[in-house]
UniProtKB/TrEMBL annotation:
It holds the Pfam family M20_dimer. Residues 206-301 form the Peptidase M20 dimerisation domain. Residues 24-33 have a biased composition (Gly residues). It comes from the Bacteria. InterPro entries: Bact_exopeptidase_dim_dom, Pept_M20_glutamate_carboxypep, Peptidase_M20, Peptidase_M20_dimer, Peptidase_M20A. Keywords: Hydrolase, Metal-binding. It comes from Plantactinospora sonchi. This is M20 family metallopeptidase. Residues 1-36 are annotated as: Disordered.
Length: 414
């Protein structure tokens, strides 16, 4: 039963230097679950220090040296908390980390990334700080606080067998090197818990849109814009036709957005442009829509005689359908109640994560289990400090529930 799952976490152990057990907040006046939330509250100063350590090591995704340095910082913090060092996996220059516990096949995957969108030097203008109950710093919300929550949650488990933690280093770029690694780690698991930042108000992310990305390029013929423009094949005009055609592929009724974004053409103002192109961002709720848009974009035909089109790109992440998260969301809700936490909300969001990949291989996936706060990728990025202990406790309880085979120990599945 869920109550047994939570109670099983009451065995003595250290979490961030705080001894767990009857003296750490369990019993009358404490939270249910042998004081798990209270123990995480006691560990909060250490937790904040570790978040500060991670945030203070800048890790822009495209800078592989910075990502490698960040991986070493995450590895040191994780080794101290977990008592074992991670594997360092370098793929196409990006450094990823993996902890595996136990001799049997893993049953639950905790997933996150340590790269961020913030360039080197961002700490000069956005320093790490904790003030008035709010933590700030580049990448704190997305998602270095979530990494620390994962480490503290697993450190709280008296038995970690069946647990894998995977921390990737290129998620913000679309996971070009780590996608296959994420999918391989997720296949056959009872669940994937994604420590990406929460939605507004701490809601869990129960569905995510799939993402496709394209580049549409046009080739024409240059000519003098004043003397003989009729001899040219104007790629600016050609691209204008294609932008309208691509934008028309959107289907608001199905939540499908097809958005032309960055566009460029030509070289000088008095020359008919002979080349150019634009990027396309596609977001869909279901695979059939992703396939429809893909076919249509690849079937684009030139509008001007003599113009040529080239389309590159395609689907980047499959949708994370609500059905993939429903069971885990139900379990999280039950465990939150047992821990004395407010019931978590659940929302569908347009942004994608590596959780799209885990759901895409058929693994039950619950996303948005990381920090509560806001402002991801923005100047006001922040984390609400008071929410960290409860979040860590919920992730610990859910991990412990999933790592044990159904029907084994403490009454089986909820």
């Amino acid at each position: 039963m869920p109550g047994d799952d939570v109670a099983a976490l009451g065995e003595p152990a250290d979490v961030g230097g705080v001894r767990r057990g009857a003296d750490a907040g369990s019993g009358p006046g404490g939270d249910p679950g042998n004081g798990l939330v209270a123990r995480m509250r006691a560990a909060l100063p250490a937790m904040l220090a570790d978040i500060g350590t991670l945030v203070s090591c800048e890790s822009p995704s495209a800078d592989q040296a910075a990502v490698a340095a960040s991986a070493e910082v995450v590895a040191r913090v994780g080794t101290r908390l977990l008592g074992s060092a991670p594997e360092r996996i370098v793929l196409a220059g990006w450094t990823h980390l993996r902890w595996r516990f136990g001799d049997q096949p893993s049953r639950v995957l905790l997933l996150g990334h340590h790269d961020t969108v913030w360039p080197l030097g961002s700490l000069d203008t956005h320093p790490y700080e904790v003030r008035d109950g709010v933590l700030r710093g580049p990448g704190c919300f997305d998602m270095k606080a979530g990494l620390v929550l994962a480490l503290y949650a697993v450190a709280a488990l008296p038995d970690r067998s069946g647990v894998t933690i995977l921390v990737t280093g290129d998620e913000e770029l679309g996971s070009p090197s780590s996608r296959a690694l994420v999918e391989a780690e997720a296949v056959g698991r009872a669940g994937a818990l994604v420590l990406e930042a929460s939605a507004a108000g701490g809601a869990l992310k129960t569905a995510r849109k799939g993402v496709s990305r394209y580049r549409v390029e046009a080739a024409g013929r240059a000519a003098h814009a004043g003397l003989e423009p009729e001899r040219g094949i104007n790629t600016t005009v050609e691209l204008a036709h294609q932008v309208l055609a691509v934008g028309a592929l959107a289907d608001p009724g199905r939540g499908t957005t097809v958005t032309p974004t960055v566009l460029s053409a030509g070289t000088t103002s008095n020359t008919v442009p002979d080349s150019g192109g634009f990027a396309v961002d596609v977001r869909v709720w279901d695979v059939s829509e992703q396939e429809r848009v893909d076919r249509a974009i690849r079937a684009l035909a030139p509008a001007l005689p003599g113009a040529r089109l080239t389309v590159t790109g395609g689907p980047n992440r499959p949708p994370l359908a609500a059905a993939a998260s429903a069971e885990l969301f139900g379990q999280a809700s039950v465990l939150a109640a047992r821990l004395g936490l407010p019931p978590p909300g659940g929302v569908a969001v347009g942004g994608a994560s590596d959780g799209n990949f885990t759901a895409g291989v058929g693994t039950p996936t619950l996303d948005g289990l990381g920090a509560v706060g806001g402002g991801a990728h923005a100047d006001d990025e922040h984390v609400t400090v008071a929410e960290l202990p409860g979040r860590a406790a919920l992730v610990a309880a859910l991990t412990d529930r999933l790592r044990r085979p159904a029907g084994h120990a403490d009454g089986g599945p909820p």
